[in-house]
Amino acid sequence: MFNADFNDTLSKNPTVDLYPEEHRAAIDDINDWVYHSINNGVYKCGFAQSQEAYDTAFDELFSALDKAEAMLTKQRFLLGDDLTEADIRLFVTLIRFDEVYTVYFKTNKKYIKDYTALSNYVKDLYQTKGIKESVDMWHIKTHYYTSHPKLNYYAIVPKGGEAWWEGDHDRHRLAKKPVAWMA
């Protein structure tokens, strides 16, 4: 729906297709494991009510992050040269990971900034026209750290670290073709 239904009324870039017909099966496959193991995986860790549930979710989350790291070591985006909704789905969790999920949801095995491919991938997407403007780290942190009294009774919002996602990246070296609208 968000890919095309608003093209005639609200879209600033109606020609951008993040769910192209020829890639839908692959996008759906990636979305399936990214959603269950990463997007929802951080919540499974954070809201686990037993050590066993937490341990299972934790292991599944980091296995999926390792899988994404391996994929993105070889190609710029999850489907090669084409930015798709699968990349956006992964990005929204990765951009929050170091500042929120490692502490708040106890996903502290490794930071995203410690993964070579994933950290450069986050930088690449963050610095893409239209994406950076949609990320407000103050709002993200304030929302998470103040909305779950059982997890953070006093609603203390950590200051956080340096905005590493604004630094230089090397993702263009993996591109086989330019993505004109992303510049």
Written overview of the protein:
With 183 residues, this protein is an all-alpha fold. The chain has a single domain, classed as Up-down Bundle (Glutathione S-transferase Yfyf (Class Pi), Chain A, domain 2). It starts with 23 loop residues before the first helix and ends in a 37-residue tail after the last helix. The chain has six helices and no strands. Helix 1 runs parallel beside helix 4.
Q: List low-confidence stretches.
A: none
Query: What fold name goes in the CATH topology slot?
Result: Glutathione S-transferase Yfyf (Class Pi), Chain A, domain 2
Supply the helix-strand structural class: mainly alpha
Q: Any idea of the CATH class? A: Mainly Alpha
Keywords:
mainly alpha; single chain; about 180 residues; globular; Glutathione S-transferase Yfyf (Class Pi), Chain A, domain 2
Break the fold down into its secondary structure elements and pairings:
Layout: H1 24-39, H2 41-46, H3 51-74, H4 85-104, H5 116-126, H6 137-146
Short description, anyone?
The chain is built from 6 helices and no strands. The mean pLDDT is 90. With 183 residues, the protein is mostly helical.
